[in-house]
Amino acid sequence: MRNLRLILAYDGTDFSGWQIQPGLATIQGTLALAIGRITGENVLPQGSGRTDAGVHALGQVATFTTESIIPAANLVTALNDILPQAIRVMEATEVPLDFHARKSARAKTYRYHIHRAAICSPFLTRYVWHYPYPLDEDAITHAARQIEGEHDFTSFAATDPERGQENEGRSNLRRIFLSEWRREGDDELVYEVRGNGFLHHMVRNLVGTFILAGKGTIKPADIRVILEAKSRSAAGATAPASGLYLVGVEYD
Question: By CB distance 3.0 to 4.6 Å, which of 43, 208, 213, 226 could disulfide with 239?
Answer without folding.
Answer: 208
